[in-house]
From TrEMBL:
MF (Gene Ontology): 5-methyltetrahydropteroyltriglutamate-homocysteine S-methyltransferase activity; methionine synthase activity; zinc ion binding
Organism from which the protein derives: Shewanella fidelis
Signal peptide (from-to): none
Keywords: Metal-binding, Methyltransferase, Transferase, Zinc
Keyword Electron transport: no
Gene Ontology BP terms: methylation
Listed cofactors: Zn(2+)
Name this protein carries in UniProt: Methionine synthase
Amino acid sequence: MKTLLPTSTAGSLPKPAWLAEPETLWSPWKLQGNELIDGKQDALRIALQEQQQAGVDIVSDGEQTRQHFVTTFIEHLSGVDFENRKTVRIRDRYDASVPTIVGPIARQKPVFIEDAKFLRQQTKQPIKWALPGPMTMIDTLYDDHYHSRKQLAWEFAKVLNQEAKELEAAGVDIIQFDEPAFNVFFDEVNDWGIACLERAIEGLKCETAVHICYGYGIKANTDWKKTLGNEWRQYEEVFPKLQQSNIDIISLECHNSRVPIELLALIRGKKVMVGAIDVASDTIETPQQVADTLRQALEFVDADKLYPCTNCGMAPLSREVARDKLNALSAGAAIVRQELANAN
Ligand SMILES: [Zn+2]
């Protein structure tokens, strides 16, 4: 990466109102058939352009072609029955009606490869593509086949690896796995969660990232955060083992969260996507606030390994708020970039 402090987002951006109901998760599509296919591509082009106009360095599809960051991938797999739904507790936080695993998991066809090729055609900038992580996937399903969280996660890791290899071949520069579940199930993360993640990235030559956050700014998550106390030390449980793992980049939440910044010392040596934009609030950060967060992170992360980012996806925000927050991210990164240049 040539630019110092290259900016990016955690992944999702709001969808246009003509494509899906705004400011809603799992929002149903408003188009059908070929109109939906075209509409998704048009939305992807807009999401890319908005990132470019805000000066984002590492761009993404804004997750415009998927309904949800976990469900859409699972919908493309065999072994999952979407009619047969059970209510489970997601990340120990809220109940949701989820599909059932009824047989062996397999990926019969590519999921996002055509979308990734389409994005690759639109830009020469580095692109990042997000996939759900194995542990977060198993937490969004009822398992009536393997009856083992570890084995089901391992099976997902294998199909994620197939998808990731094709994303790499399509020209994706960074493949990111979203693992909010890593902030909840610490013993399992250390026992087998990180091993599953390493299985998912096996043989990849492109860069790899894991995104671990406190979730979208939805009520279930903000209520949960209120129970976490004054210091959020969840990262402390999983960082030591992640530091030893083959993952290149760790994407985490900083601004407005109660994560003690010194926990970043536990992943010394890794590249870090530092969340400098709060996605749970409509208040637009000032460039100075973004710069402050980045300066704090620089005490624990070498400048050439720091990637300014958002805390999480921005799908539930309004387009205007998301746009303003992207601009703030760029402006804040520019301040610190200048300071680093002056210091040298
Ligand atoms: Zn997130």
